[in-house]
Amino acid sequence: MLILSIAIVFDLTDKMDNFFEGQATWREILLDYYLNFIPYYMNMFSSLFIFISVIFFTSKMAGNSEIIAITAAGVSYHRLMRPYFISALLLALLSFWMGGYVIPPASGKLLAFTDKYVQHFTTENARNVQMEVEPGSVLYIESFQQRTRMGYRASLEHFEGKQLVSRITAERIRYDSAHYDAARADTVYCWHLEDYVRRDFEDKFETMSHGNRLDTIIQIEPRELFITAEQAQQMTNPELRQYMEKQAARGAGNLEAFETEWHKRWATPIGAFIMTLLGVTMSSQKSRRGMGRNLGIGLALSALYILFSTVSTTFSVNGVMSPFMSVWLPNFVFLLIGSVLYLRVRK
């Protein structure tokens, strides 16, 4: 509660000007922003909370010579770690459930508030959209407006293998509607191509036709053209995985932010085990300096872990490192440190 309170104070101080300039009401600030701010950062700082609590608890045991009595009674250090890791498992499962299924819907309001009053990151216009909407079908739109659901200078190409079989170009493309198709057992999306020219290729021959309007099915929704990296946070685990698979099949690029978010949702719960291992091995030996030294080192290490995790994820967004490596690298490094400490303390 103390750490989250400090985080809220710093965040409020930083964004107060934005709130007043945007004329945000106190109800919006409290209910739409900070009510969703708390669970998001609570889950983000969960490793820090676990680390501090483990150090506090274990230092008290070591200071009262309880660990000496336990090991003198013939209990192995490995057996001593079992209740710690059972607790870490429960906390990891809670963190995974929160991060993958509870926090994403709440992040929708948080991001909507941020977009409206703090930093505008959504757009009404998409430019130079190119993706494979279905196997062998490539769509290109030079510009598309979300409000009117209309795009300009579009082309739709169909391939069989590497052979181009048809190409449709249109001055305008307009989204019409969506309905469920029993034959496809899927939802289909209807579009209109206006002022179009169609070319069909067969062997060395070309057939050309044109018209004012052509109704066709293109398996893409307008909202898919406007999904930004920030919106990865508001997708649940199934939605995020489905989106990445769909976009990868289409050949769309710039998925690093979504892949990074996906790996973070697995790496954060694993951090509970790593921070527990570090906390126990650092504080299980009795020290004349008391608990203060262990807590100080624990705070420094946990802050370094969070900083390392935050900085390393920027490497994947900038294309310097793969999303998997950038997210899991802090866990690998601190797991190595914890393993070395465990082998030393056990002896």
Please list the strands of the largest sheet in the order they lie side by side.
1-2-3-4-5-6
Shape: elongated
Structural class determined from secondary elements: alpha+beta
Can you tell me the residue ranges where pLDDT is under 50 for at least 5 consecutive residues? none
* Radius of gyration over C-alpha positions, nearest whole angstrom: 27 Å
Instruction: Write the element-wise H/E pattern from the N-terminal end onward.
Output: HHHHHEEEEEEHHHH
Please report which band the strand proportion falls in: under 5%, 5-15%, 15-25%, 25-35%, 35-45% or over 45%: 15-25%
Count of discrete domains: 2
- Got a strand count? 6
Task: Give the helix level as a range of percent.
Answer: 55-70%
Alpha plus pi helix count: 9
* Overall mean confidence score, pLDDT: 85
Measured distance between first and last alpha carbons: 37 Å
> What multimeric state do the chains show?
single chain
**Biggest sheet overview:** 6 strands, antiparallel
Keywords:
single chain, 347 residues, alpha+beta, 2 domains, 57% helix
Q: Short summary of the structure?
A:
The protein has 347 residues and is an alpha+beta fold. It folds into 2 domains: 45-104 and 255-346, no CATH class; 125-225, no CATH class. It has helices spanning 2-21, 26-44, 46-63, 66-72, 77-118, 237-250, 256-283, 291-317, 323-346; strands at 125-134, 137-145, 150-160, 163-181, 186-202, 205-217.
What order do the helices and strands come in, and which of them pair?
Blueprint: H1 2-21, H2 26-44, H3 46-63, H4 66-72, H5 77-118, E1 125-134, E2 137-145, E3 150-160, E4 163-181, E5 186-202, E6 205-217, H6 237-250, H7 256-283, H8 291-317, H9 323-346
Antiparallel strand pairs: 1-2, 2-3, 3-4, 4-5, 5-6
Helix pairs in contact: 2-5, 3-7, 3-8, 5-7, 6-7, 7-8, 7-9, 8-9
